[in-house]
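Posting for a labmate who doesn't have an account.
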Amino acid sequence: MITLKLEPLLQLHSETFSQIVALNPDTQLELTATGDLLIISPRGGETGDRNDQISFQLRLWNKQTKLGKTFNAATGFSLPNGGIRSPDASWLNISSWEALTPNLCPDFLVELRSPSDNLGDLRNKMQEYINNGARLGWLIDPINKIVEIYHPQRSTVVMVNPGELSREEVLPGFVLDLENIL
């Protein structure tokens, strides 16, 4: 990931950011709440496969339960703090989807660490999601074989090499099989 600091020379707002994204459709970009432009590095084959496995399992569960909408890393969320972020996989419950507002954070999200990702940056991003309304976040780190679980108003839980993940209170009946992900 490359961070371009633009302020104080340029203040990047969501409308300008959208125009930059439209001009660069093959580049994954994010905007931080402080106005920094993030250029996300392309992922390698292993990370891409892991990402697809996560998105597939979440989408299959949601297709069966019809409890909300699922999204992949191509989806940018305009967060209440002004940032525009794209989790690797995410889900909105149906009431959040129907109340679609200009600034919206997914109810649940997954970030998958790739070899080029800085773990500290990902942890900060996870906390940003929680601070902006996410009810549950999983940071999956196949490099260290750990999963960090983020909830509002709770300490982060770290699991070492779990075989699966589930959280009934947010995702009733969803179980993420980590066999080929961690």
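Reply:
Got it, the structure tokens are right above this. Helices lie at 14-23, 45-65, 94-98, 119-131.
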